[in-house]
Amino acid sequence: MKTVVVSIGGSVVLSDEADALFLNKLTTLFKKISKEYKLFVIVGGGKIARRYIQLGRELGFDEDTLDLIGIDVTRVNARIITNLLGSSNKEIPHTTGEALKLDLPIVVMGGTDPKHSTDQVGAELAEKTQAVRFVNATNVDGIYDKDPNKYKDAKQLKEVSIDHLITQYGTKWGAAGKNIFMDEPALEIIQRAKVPTFIVNGKRLDQLEKALTGQSFDGTEILV
Ligand code: UTP
Fold first, then answer.
1. Hey, which of 128, 147, 159, 200 has its CA 20 to 30 A from 94?
2. Once rounded to an integer, what is the mean pLDDT over residues 47-54?
């Protein structure tokens, strides 16, 4: 069975609008996908992680401690998702190595170590499993040519090369709680391992399903 890896932003799982109905629909989709593919789901920390990180920063905690706080929140979000799935792990793995040992249709996890986000965990798993697709389900419709929050004329890109993204964003981890479409260290893995990567709005479940199953979807493909 082929493998698909999905990194789902905490902002998708627990946004202001997201509710029990959305989470039930999301996990129903994951169950459907798992009939065709082995699925790894990596859950992000979202707003709650950033709120705690901000508090820790105000309290003078160092960057590694702030990252560890973020990781704890991703693991709580992962526990919510795994409890809705049934066919997945009960306990949340601490490392990608632990996750790879689990012989289950769906494996759910959160963050692992400081200095990156759950995007890197997803890229690592996609590399190690030679996944057919790595889907980053985030809270925007894709990658834009410039910051859509700052520029009204920002255009969504259908495709963009990994080399272009690395030139634009680099591969160095910024800071705890930093929120971009894909963390920079993950870009390096995608380039090295030539992981077929797709960015989609995770709140649009019809588009997420298309991205997960390799159909054309409204979002961005990263050309490797
Ligand atoms: P996320 O993966 O949620 O990052 O981890 P994010 O960019 O805020 O993504 P969204 O909003 O969920 O889409 C939250 C924070 O937890 C720490 C980092 O500080 C990250 O910014 N973290 C997470 C790690 O240090 N290591 C990990 O493996 C995962």
1. 200
2. 95
The string of pLDDT tens digits covering residues 197-224 is 999 999 999 999 999 999 999 999 999 9
Tokens for 52, please give them: 């705690």
> In degrees, to the nearest 5, what angle opens at C-alpha 41 toward C-alphas 33 and 133?
65
Question: Domains of the chain: which residue ranges?
Answer: 3-223
Residue nearest to atom 15 of ligand 1 (CA): 70
Rounded to the nearest angstrom, the distance between the alpha carbon of 10 and the centre of ligand 1 is 8
**Angle between helical axes of 46-58 and 63-85 (0-180°, round to 10):** 160
Q: Is the dihedral of CA 199, 204, 209, 214 positive or negative?
A: negative
CA distances from 77 to 5, 121, 218 (A): 17, 15, 26
Helix (H) or strand (E) holding 25: helix 20-33
Whether pLDDT at 179 is above 70: no
Condensed to tens digits (0 to 9), the pLDDT of residues 151-161 reads 889 999 999 99
Report pLDDT for 14: 83
- Tokens encoding 111: 């963050």
Both structure tokens of 21: 């109905």
**Which tokens in the block code for residue 130?**
């030679």
Q: Atom 28, ligand 1: which residue's CA is nearest?
A: 111
Pocket perturbation via mutation, ligand 1, pick of 117, 120, 183 by most ligand atoms within 8 A of CB: 117
The answer for residues whose C-beta is within 8 angstroms of residue 33's C-beta and 6 or more apart is 4, 39, 209, 212, 213
CATH of domain 3-223: 3.40.1160.10
